[in-house]
Design brief:
Keywords: Aminotransferase, Isomerase, Pyridoxal phosphate, Transferase. The chain contains 14 helices and 14 strands. By secondary structure, it is α/β, with parallel strands linked by helices. The chain has a seven-stranded mixed β-sheet, sandwiched between helices. It has a four-stranded mixed β-sheet with strand order 1-2-3-13. A three-stranded antiparallel β-sheet has the order 11-12-14, with helices on one face. Bound molecules: pyridoxal-5'-phosphate.
C-alpha cells in the first residue's frame, strides 16, 4: 500500500493526463497493453536508454518499447537515415522501390529466408503467415501454444493467458474460443510437451495447416525450450506436412544476429518478425521457405498493404541492420549476462524464492524456485511479489515492462552502469523483503 501511495504521488501528472486521455481514447491509451492501474506513465520524450514523463521524472527504460527500441531511443544513425529519406527519397510510393528490395536482400541473408514480404505490425505478419500456410496446405486448422500471445488476429486470441479454471486438465487443454473462431479450428498444446503435440497431430494432422510457436516464449516472462524440444517440433511438423511458424516478433534481433531460430539451430518454414527490426518505426515481415512463399507468386494467396515497405521504415531498418553487427549484439549480451549473474548473487544471498532467466539481450526474474517450462508452471509463480518488484523499481526510476509477463531489454544504448542500477534496486528490494 505504501508503494502504491508513493507511485500516485510522483506520477500525479500522469494520472491527470490519463483522465483527459480517457475522454478521447478508450482507457486513455492507444493499445490495451499500455493501460495499467491506477494509470500508465505518460511519456513526453525519450533518448538513449531514458524516458522523461509529464511530471518531469527521468526513468531508466528497461522496457524499450517491448524490445522495439533495440538500438536505443533517437539513435543518431536511425534518425539520420529517416531524415535523409524525408529530405531526399520520399515517404510512400505504392510502386516498388529499390530500398525495399535492398532491405529484403539483407533480411534474407541475416535470417536465412528464401523470400519475405514486409508488413506494418506483428499482428499482420502472423495473420499472413497463417493464411500462407492455409493456402499452401489446403488445410484450415492451426495449433498454438497454451497461454501464448501472438497479436490480435482472431484465431490467435484463443488461449491467451487464460484463467486456470477455463482451460481443463493439463494433459488435454480445452481452448476457450473467443470472437470469430470456428470451433475445432484452433488446437492448443503445452509448450515443451512433445507427447501432447504428437497426440494432437495423430488425431487431427490431416486438417492442420500450421503450428505457431515463439521459439523462446517471451510473453510469459521468458520460458526457454527444453533441450531437443524445437528439433522435436520440427520433426513432428515434417511428419504431418504441417507448416512450422516461428513467431520471432519478440525474439528477433534481441535473441541474436539471426534471431532465435539461428541461435537455437532449428529452421522453421515461416518466420514472423517485427519490433526490433524497425528501430521504433512500424515495420514487420513474414517470410521463409520458397515453396511456401510461392503461394503469393502463384495467386493462391494475395498479400496487401498500402504502407508495406515504405521508404521511412526501410531507411530505419537499414540503419538498424548496420548497427546490429555480431560485435554490437555480443557486447550488449555481455552486459545482460553480467546483470543476470549479479542478480543471481543477490537471490542467493537473500535466499529469495526466485531465479533469473535470460536469452540474448533480454532477461527477467521469475518468482519461483522451480523452473518454468510452460504456461501452467508460469501461472504457479508468485505474481504478488512480481508486481511489488515492478512497482518498487518504477518508484525508484526504473521502468521495467509494466506487464508482469514481460522482460527487460539491454539495448545498444544501455551501459553496465545502467544495469548496475537495476541490480542495486533488486538488492534494496531483497533487503526490504527480508527485513
Ligand atoms: N507476436 C508476439 C510474440 C508478440 O509479442 C506480439 C506483440 O507483442 C505480436 C505478435 C503482435 O505484434 P504487434 O503488436 O506489432 O501487432
Amino acid at each position: 500500500a505504501a508503494e502504491w501511495e508513493r507511485f500516485r504521488d510522483w506520477s500525479a501528472g500522469s494520472g491527470r493526463h490519463n483522465v483527459r486521455a480517457g475522454e478521447a481514447l478508450p482507457l486513455g491509451v492507444t493499445s490495451s497493453f499500455q493501460h495499467w492501474d491506477p494509470w500508465p506513465i505518460t511519456i513526453t520524450s525519450a533518448r538513449g536508454a531514458h524516458l522523461t514523463d509529464v511530471d518531469g521524472n527521468r526513468l531508466l527504460d528497461l522496457s524499450m518499447g517491448f524490445g522495439a527500441m533495440l538500438v536505443g531511443h533517437l539513435n543518431p544513425v536511425v534518425v539520420d537515415a529517416v531524415k535523409h529519406a524525408l529530405d531526399e527519397i520520399g515517404t510512400l510510393f505504392v510502386t516498388p522501390s529499390s530500398q525495399a528490395t535492398d532491405m529484403a536482400e539483407r533480411f534474407k541473408t541475416r535470417f536465412g529466408l528464401d523470400m519475405l514480404r514486409f508488413t506494418n505490425s506483428g499482428t499482420e505478419s502472423l495473420m499472413y503467415a497463417i493464411r500462407s500456410a492455409r493456402a499452401f496446405t489446403g488445410r484450415k486448422a492451426i495449433i498454438k501454444i497454451e497461454g501464448g500471445y501472438h497479436g490480435g488476429y482472431d484465431p490467435l486470441q484463443v488461449s491467451v493467458k487464460p484463467g486456470l479454471d477455463e482451460i481443463g486438465p493439463a494433459d488435454n487443454p480445452t481452448p476457450a474460443t473467443p470472437f470469430d473462431v470456428e470451433a475445432g479450428t484452433v488446437h492448443v498444446v503445452a509448450y515443451n510437451d512433445l507427447g501432447q503435440l504428437e497426440r494432437v497431430l495423430s488425431a487431427h494432422g490431416t486438417q492442420i495447416a500450421c503450428l505457431v510457436v515463439e521459439p523462446v516464449i517471451e510473453n510469459l516472462a521468458i520460458v526457454l525450450p527444453d533441450e531437443g524440444y524445437l528439433a522435436g517440433v520440427r520433426r513432428l511438423c515434417d511428419d504431418h506436412g504441417v507448416v512450422l511458424i516461428f513467431d520471432e516478433v519478440k525474439t528477433g534481433l534481441t535473441a541474436g544476429h539471426g534471431g532465435a531460430s539461428r541461435r537455437l539451430g532449428v529452421k522453421p518454414d515461416l518466420v514472423t518478425l517485427a519490433k526490433s527490426i524497425g528501430g521504433g518505426l512500424p515495420l514487420a515481415a513474414f517470410g521463409g521457405k520458397r515453396d511456401v512463399m510461392e503461394v503469393v507468386v502463384d495467386g493462391r494467396m494475395a498479400h496487401f498493404g498500402t504502407y508495406n515497405g515504405n521508404a521511412l521504415c526501410m531507411a530505419a531498418a537499414e540503419a538498424v541492420d548496420e548497427l546490429c553487427t555480431h560485435e554490437a549484439l555480443a557486447a550488449a549480451e555481455q552486459v545482460n549476462l553480467g546483470a543476470l549473474e549479479a542478480i543471481d548473487t543477490v537471490i542467493d544471498e537473500y535466499e529469495l524464492p526466485a531465479h533469473t532467466v535470460g536469452v540474448g539481450l533480454k532477461g527477467c526474474v521469475t518468482w519461483s524456485t522451480s523452473p518454468v517450462r510452460n504456461y501452467r508452471d508460469y501461472k504457479a509463480t508468485d505474481f504478488g511479489v512480481a508486481e511489488l518488484s515492478w512497482l518498487w523499481g518504477v518508484n525508484r526510476g526504473i521502468l521495467t515492462p509494466p506487464g508482469l509477463d514481460e522482460q527487460w531489454l539491454v539495448s545498444l544504448a544501455h551501459t553496465t552502469t545502467d544495469m548496475d542500477q537495476l541490480v542495486g534496486d533488486v538488492r534494496e528490494l531483497a533487503k526490504a523483503l527480508r527485513g
